[in-house]
Amino acid sequence: MSSPSPRASRTDAVANRARILAVAGEAFAASSGASMTAIAKRAGVGVGTLYRHFPTREALIMELYHQEIQKVIDLAYEFAADLPPLEALRRWLEEVARYGKLKYGLSDVIHAATDGGHDDPNYGPFLSAIDALLDAGAATQELKADLDPQDVLLQLGALWRIPPGDGAAARTARLLDLIIDGLRTRPSHT
Question: Where are the membrane-spanning stretches (predicted)?
Answer without folding.
Answer: none
